[in-house]
Amino acid sequence: MIQIINTGVANIRSLQAAFDRMQQPWNLTENIDDIVSASHVVLPGVGAYAAAAEAIDRLGLRESIVQRLNDHDAATLCICLGMQLLGKASAESPGVDGLGVIEETIERFDTTVQVPQLGWNNVVPSPTNNQTMFEPGEAYFANSFRLNSPPAGWNYATTDYGGQFVSCLWQGNTLACQFHPELSGKWGQTLLEKWAA
Amino acid sequence: MLKPRIIPCLDVNNGRVVKGVKFQNLRDAGCPVELADHYQQQGADELVILDVSATREARLAMLETIESVRRKLFIPLTVGGGVASVEDANRLLNAGADKVSANSSAVKNPELINQMSTRFGAQCTVVAIDAKRDPAKENFWQVMTRSGTQGEPLDAVNWAAEAQNRGAGEILLTSFDRDGTRSGYDLELMRAVTAACTLPVIASGGANSVAHMVEAFENGAHAVLAASIFHDRNMTVEDVKQELTASGVNVRI
Asked: What was the pLDDT predicted at B121?
């Protein structure tokens, strides 16, 4: 069973529809036990950084989510804002603590490009990775903030939008995507299937 | 960098896709779920569904249509038509839309744009503008509402800039004069709007060839919307993308 964390600020119908097509049962949860024991957990994210962080704290889920994200045997998927929450903080909501799973902070895109980045862009895995997750592909993005440089110890992919940024991170069964795999056509569906398998 | 997007548009009335000329004389063009799936298989980058129905019953049927389309669709879906409140937008998002487009109601109550953007984010908030060229003035376009039946005392270019200031994330720009005429997008309108705001702008109204799409991209469009060209089976999305690639436009393959 895939447990989707209900931060209350995310529009997750598309993600649920993707799991339905894959015939993967899912449930929307606010429960610590689900996050600790589920085979698969998703931290979705559309919406504001502060609102999502507050929702996680209000539900008392911070510690269990961090613990799970540090255990790379547990299958955990973070999407869009969910990936940004891995960082210590974000320029979007100064003073709000992220999950701090990685040391980096999330920055706004360079002022030379339009925000939000809205549309399809290339996702290219780094040649230094020691774990293959996907072939280079095209993915759908909807974001104004991004992770600038890869944290040590993670496999990653980059995307060019006014300069390279980190569009995906993975390690073991932990996967974090700045793009929306559920909206990224067959390529995205293949990635979701691989993570859920 | 971002790829120019090709977006088939489905005008839906009472559960069926329809297509008209200058917003009139609607004729049947198929089942929305079948067409949506068909176009995504052909490589559409995104889909727009506009509710053109007039009755309350048909509006409720629309939510079911959106749910059915969402079950099939693994590309982004924008839904518009008759969105009068944040609650209307919320219902469409819950049914499976990724973005919601507001048109007449945003003109009547511009605060709706702020409210949608605050609640759902700019990336969810699309403002659709139907612009009609004023032949008496040079490069002036009037905003039309209520499916093009009502002229507003509003400059379409200024309105696009205001929509951005209020938190819109994207503009769906339809040339009322070109809609369904197959005479190409209104390029001057496209240039004027992309000069006045920095949001992604979707060109709509008048496409009949890949050359028209190339022109739109050259004049600042981030995406092109087309209906007749696809519904009439003149070209598939795949055909269009192959020709665009050959013309040097870097689309998603």
From this structure: 87
Confidence band, pLDDT 50/70/90 cuts, at residue A45: confident
Of A14, A121, A188, nearest to B98 by CB-CB distance is: A14
Q: Which DSSP state fits A90? A: B
The two three-digit tokens of residue A142, written as one number: 């909807």
Residues of A in contact with B40 (CB under 8 A): 185
Backbone phi and psi for residue B43, each to the nearest 5 degrees, phi listed first = 110, 20
Name the closest residue on chain B to residue A51, using Cα atoms: B119
The residue of chain B nearest to residue A138, with distances taken between CA atoms, is B252
Neighbour count for residue B37 (Cβ, 10 Å): 17
pLDDT at A8 over 80: no
Asked whether B111 and B118 are in contact (CB, 8 A), the reply is no
B56 falls in which pLDDT band (50, 70, 90)?
confident
Q: What letter would DSSP give residue A113?
A: S
Distance from CA of B161 to the nearest CA of A (A): 14
| Domains of chain A in sequence order | 2-196 (3.40.50.880)
Return d(Cα B100, Cα B123) in angstroms, integer.
10
Work out the pLDDT band at B148, boundaries 50, 70, 90: confident
Residue B198 near chain A (CB below 8 Å): yes
- Tell if the CB–CB gap between A185 and B3 is shorter than 8 Å: no
Q: Cα B100 to chain center, whole Å?
A: 10
B75-95 pLDDT, tens per residue? 999 999 989 999 999 999 999
Catalytic residue among A78, A80, A168, A177: A80
CATH no. for B5-246:
3.20.20.70
Query: What does the block give as tokens for A143?
Result: 């974001």
- Domain extents for chain B? 5-246
Please indicate if any CB of chain A lies within 8 Å of the CB of B63: no
Which residues of chain A are at the B interface, by a Cβ-Cβ cutoff of 8 Å? Answer: 11, 13-14, 17-18, 20-21, 46-48, 114, 116-121, 138, 140-144, 160-161, 180, 182-186, 188-189
Residue that has been written with the tokens 């006045």 in this structure: B196
Is residue A9 scored above 70 in pLDDT?
no
pLDDT at B24: 59
DSSP type of residue A181: G
> How confident is the prediction for chain B on average, in pLDDT?
92
The answer to whether B3 faces chain A, any CB pair under 8 Å, is yes
Query: How many Å from the N-terminal Cα to the C-terminal Cα in chain B?
Result: 15
Exposure b/e, B181-207, CB count within 10 A at least 16 = b: ebebbbbebbbbbbebbebbbbbbbbb
